[in-house]
Amino acid sequence: MSQSVITSLLEKTKDFSLEETLVFLANEYPEKVVFSTSFGQEDQVITDFIAKSNTDITIFTLDTGRLFQETYDVFHKTLKKYKRPIEVYFPEAAAVENLLKEKGPNSFYDSVENRKECCFIRKVVPLRKALSGNAVWITGLRAEQSENRQDLNLFEYDANFEIIKFNPLLKWSLEEVETYLQENNVPQNALHKKGFVSIGCAPCTRAIFPGEDIRAGRWWWESSHKECGLHSAKKE
């Protein structure tokens, strides 16, 4: 992917609103623009924008098999509100069966390597399948979510998944996200009111305490960079 393509996208959309950018991308890459949602606050903002843009952007989610019931609840509410299909990708059954057979259901607590193995099977492999054949991947990443995301750009090329990544909420603050959700009556995960900011799999997510980093509730038992491989800059 030539950097000139990214530069061109940044130039063409520099004066566009978020909704105008979505329409532009849908027209520029027909039926090849996808949005991955985990039904967190940022993703719900983007879902609302996509619904209002009335484009053919595909919304999909990864069901790891270890999600909170509250996540399924907001998934259902989102379907009812927007009347738009959300494609679901699951991990390969054989891979999950082998993992549990060899290491048990909670191997991710034992080491960073085991945790990344579980994330790879349950999230990265299904994501590769979901992104395959597409041109643009829309994400809900925000720069303030972690140090790893400070250097991201609005548009960038993800060499790991070989796709253009669009991060429309990159410069939004959490306060802006919460205000938008409230003002537009967007469905939210009930866990957000219980101190959960970043919500992933149930065994790997806890509420954060006042003053803690926004990602502290993810894989809280380890001191890694707190990423699962979905947004790694390096090709694996």
Short description:
This protein has 236 residues and is an alpha/beta fold.
Question: What would you say this structure looks like, in words?
Answer:
The protein is of the alpha/beta class. The chain has a single domain, classed as HUPs (Rossmann fold). The protein contains 7 helices and 6 strands. The chain has a 6-stranded mixed β-sheet with strand order 3-2-1-4-6-5. The chain is globular.
Main sheet attributes: strand count, strand direction, barrel closure: 6 strands, mixed
Question: What level of helicity do the residues show?
Answer: 25-40%
What's the architecture in CATH terms? Answer: 3-Layer(aba) Sandwich
Characterize the overall form.
globular
CATH topology: Rossmann fold
- How many beta strands in the DSSP annotation? 6
Low-confidence residue ranges: none
Radius of gyration, whole Å: 17 Å
Structural category: alpha/beta
For the record, the CATH class is Alpha Beta
- Number of separate structural domains: 1
* Beta content: 5-15%
> What is the arithmetic mean of pLDDT?
91
Distance between the termini: 17 Å
Biggest sheet strand order reads: 3-2-1-4-6-5
- CATH superfamily placement: HUPs
Alpha plus pi helix count: 7
Order of helices and strands: HHEHEHEHHEEEH
Function: Catalyzes the formation of sulfite from adenosine 5'-phosphosulfate (APS) using thioredoxin as an electron donor.
Pfam families: PAPS_reduct
Subcellular location: Cytoplasm
Cofactor: [4Fe-4S] cluster
